[in-house]
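hi support,

uploading two proteins for the ticket. first:
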Amino acid sequence: MTLRENLQALLDLLFPRTCVVCGRVLDRSEVNICAHCLGDVPHTYYWSREHNPMADRFNECIQRHVEASLDAENLPDAPEMYAFAMALFFYKSGSDYREITKSLKYRGDFGTGRMFARELAMKIREAAFLADADLIVPVPLHWTRRWKRGYNQAEVIAEVLSRELGIPCETSLLQRTRRTKTQTKLGVEQKGKNVSGAFAVKPGSVCEARHVILVDDVCTTGSTLSECHWALRQALGPQVRISAVTLACVGS
């Protein structure tokens, strides 16, 4: 073995690396996740389906904004385009695969987050409906939460996608205007109210993109993504397509 391999073997002995999903001690050739769990990742395959359950859920939330605008007689300039959306794998209660996003979000496990972000980038390349995307925008954290956590997990994912896909990433275009409760323990209706009006485009921002990809770690009800979509829509106008991608989404 090389010196580097010997050093890694020693480190593994002193500080065993474990699978982020099942907790089993990893072999020397395994990184972040064991071969068994890697082979059973519950992929969505949404990158091959322009219309899929995540996209439909996203569009239902967007439509509520459109209908509210009509009720307020704030008529849209043009019909809202169907918003594309996809995720890499399913996130569901009781599944150990939830640990992939939880490990990134709450434990700063950048290695695992970036590993799966690279796989997400590969699937985005296969998604014909995202082929013309020219800007990546992560869902922002409120500055107080970012200061406390030290990073924004959506940015970690977005920066990998930007590098792998060769698409610019703009982390300051979209801002969270107020601190919201964590969405984790809220019901569907509560989640929508919690993030309502919580995002805005930074004043004075100039954006010439034609197809923006919103990036987050997990899509549950679609409320957060749709609020970000609506903030971008008001600032960028009807001609810009806005899509969404996440590492995981709630589903079966």
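and the second one:
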Amino acid sequence: MRCAEIARKTKESDITLKLSLDGGAVEIATGIGFFDHMLTALAFYAGWGLELTVKGDLEVDGHHTVEDTGIVLGQALKAALGDRRGIRRFASAYIPMDEALCFTALDFSNRPFLVFDADMPQTVIGEYDACLTVEFMRALAMHAGLTLHQRCCYGANAHHITEALFKSLGVSIQEAVRVEGARVVSTKGVL
């Protein structure tokens, strides 16, 4: 079973998460409607089961909630992958969302890195600050051991751009974590 359960409590957030890389129920409650929508899309396109509850200091703003969710989801993804034996490892996807086109390329290399090139034309999407997308992606990549490149090729609507980024991430993750054999896909022999 490629699953993980994480609980993390700080002065800024209280998070419980259950992740199954091979499917299951998706129940997400972060207190930020648009972020719930993006995480639901991510889980759907990644083929995950994801149960996530976040109680963050939203009276301050959404930053800690979004970043800490990325940390915990990254930790769970890393734990669920174990030694990464048999996974495809690399993947990429272009996803259009109306006028926006976004691209994700990733490598479950265990060498975390983020390249993020996606300007947001609007600063707020519902109660979600558009600048938090890069914070989530950075936290996820750093804690999952993921090399992650994301780019918005073009787009005029921050909602569409953000959604295409999350969906392309999900499609890429589903392909990259697919088990294709028993070997570690690395010339070093380990990831």
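thanks. also noticed: The radius of gyration is 16 Å.
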